[in-house]
Amino acid sequence: MYCIFGQVVNIIEALNKKERTFSFEFFPPRTPKGMVRMYKTARVFSELGADFFSVTYGAGGSTSKSTLEIVKEFQGRFAKPAIHHYTCVKQSPNELRLTFDEMRRSDVRNILAMRGDPPKDEPYYRPAKKKELKYGYELIEFIRKHYGDWFTIGVPGFPEGHILTPQKKLDSKYLKVKEDAGAEFVIT
Ligand SMILES: Cc1cc2nc3c(=O)[nH]c(=O)nc-3n(C[C@H](O)[C@H](O)[C@H](O)COP(=O)(O)OP(=O)(O)OC[C@H]3O[C@@H](n4cnc5c(N)ncnc54)[C@H](O)[C@@H]3O)c2cc1C
Questions:
Q1: Residues 59-76, mean pLDDT to the nearest whole number
Q2: Whether 119 contacts 59, CB under 8 Å
Q3: Residue 14 Cβ < 6 Å to ligand 1
Q4: Which of 130, 139, 149, 175 is 20–30 Å from 184 (CA)?
Q5: How, if at all, do strands 82-87 and 52-55 pair?
Q6: Domain 3-187, CATH
Q7: Which of 151, 85, 84, 88 lies closest to 115 in space, CA to CA?
C-alpha cells in the first residue's frame, strides 16, 4: 500500500474496496477560468462520493503539463486516486523516459497506458521503426522494464471492438497480451 498524506492512492485498492465504484473523467481545460471551474466541479463530485478521477491526455502530448498538474492537484486536494492517461504515439524512448521520470518524481502512481490515435493532421502516420512504439502493449512492457511496479497500469477496453480492428474477437486476444505485459485494470 502507498499513501500521500496518509491517504491511499492506489487505484486497485479503491476498486477492490467496493462492489461498485464510480469515477469522473476530466479533459484539461484550456483557460485559467476553465481550470477554476473544473476544480470546483471536481470538489462537488468528490463530496458526492466519487471513488477516483481520471485526466485525459491530449493527442501527441498536447496537454502533457496540464494533465500532470491536474492529477497531482486531484491527489492532494481530494486524497483520492487519480489516473493519468498517457498516449505514446510519436514519442521516442528518450521522451518516454523523461515523461515517466517526471511522473514518478511527482508521485503519480496510476496510469491509463495507450498507444493513442494518429495525429489529426497525419491520418496515415506510421511509427518510425525501432524509434517509436507500435502498440499499446509495448508501452506497458516499456514501463514495467524501466519502472518495475512503481506504476499501477490500466488500459482502455473496447467492448464493441476498436475502430481499426479487422475482427472483434482479436481485441480480447490483444487485451490478454496487455494483461500479460503487466496491465492491472481496464476502463471501457
Ligand atoms: C477509457 C478510454 C480513455 C481514453 N483516453 C484517451 C486520452 O486521454 N487521450 C487520447 O488521445 N486517446 C484516448 N483514448 C483513445 C485511444 O487512445 C484510442 O482508442 C487508441 O486508438 C487505442 O489505443 P490502444 O492503446 O488501445 O491501442 P492498441 O492496443 O495499440 O490498439 C490499436 C490497434 O492495434 C490493434 N492491436 C493491438 N495490439 C495488437 C497486436 N499485439 N498485434 C496486432 N494488432 C494489435 C488493435 O486491434 C487496434 O486496432 C481513450 C480510450 C478509452 C477507451
A1: 89
A2: yes
A3: no
A4: 130
A5: parallel
A6: 3.20.20.220
A7: 88
Residue minimizing CA distance to atom 29 of ligand 1: 136
Ligand 1 and 87: CB distance under 6 A: yes
Catalytic residue IDs: 25
State if residue 179 touches ligand 1 by the CB under 6 angstroms criterion: no
160: CA distance to ligand 1 center in Å?
A: 13
Q: Locate cell 474477437: which residue? A: 169
In angstroms, the CA 26 to CA 32 distance is 15
Q: Determine the atom of ligand 1 nearest the C-alpha atom of 161.
A: 47
Ligand 1 centre from 4 Cα, in Å? 30
How far is CA 97 from each of CA 88, 103, 127, rounded to the nearest angstrom?
Answer: 11, 10, 18
Ligand 1 pocket check for 162: Cβ under 6 Å: yes
- The pTM score is 0.94
Contact between residue 131 and residue 159 where contact means Cβ atoms under 8 Å apart: no
**What nine digits make up the cell of 185?**
485494470
CA distance 95 to 87: 12
CA 126 → CA 83, 112, 119, 174, distances in Å?
A: 28, 22, 10, 19
Residues 6+ apart with CB under 8 A from 79: 4, 5, 7, 9
The answer to whether residue 118 scores a pLDDT higher than 90 is no
Domain range list for the chain: 3-187
